[in-house]
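Entry 14: structure prediction run for ATP synthase subunit delta. Input pasted below.
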Amino acid sequence: MAELSTIARPYAEALFAAAKKDQGGLAAWSTAVSELAQVSNVPDVLKAMSDPRLSKDQRKQLFPALVKSPLSQEMRNFINLLVDNDRLMLLPEIAEQFKELKNRHEGSASAEIASAFELSDEQIQELLVGLEKKFGFKLKPVVTVDKSLIGGVRVTVGDQVLDTSVQAQLARLRDTLAAA
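Run finished. Output tokens:
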């Protein structure tokens, strides 16, 4: 079976193309797509939307009703398309790809920074300055703490990973010793 990201890509690209044409702005669309993804990730919603007793028309009515914010007609049409194609549960992946397209359009990217310890704002800014020089565009940090790293940081920007963690260094040392 094809990977979810491959299946979600055309939907995300079509949604992004529609968002760029809309005068409401990318930020409003991004917020709406994010909210749809959050709703679709709720376990009870997953269960209800995959219930074979519900018709597609019932799903088309039920899902938008679960969203707090008012939805534009374009967004309702998008939900209907996803329901018709049995792709409603792809919303989290579509939202992620939409966010990447938006960032690329704005000349930025999301940087997932995992650190063994809590980083101060000053440390994050210092790290971002170096990373932005390396990658050549503005980065939006998403910082998490991962104690398993032991020390150092792991930075993921798109499909590139910079891993300076102690855990990665120990793994490289283990591989070197095993190869000898």
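Notes: The chain has two domains: 4-103, 107-179. Will compare against the previous run tomorrow.
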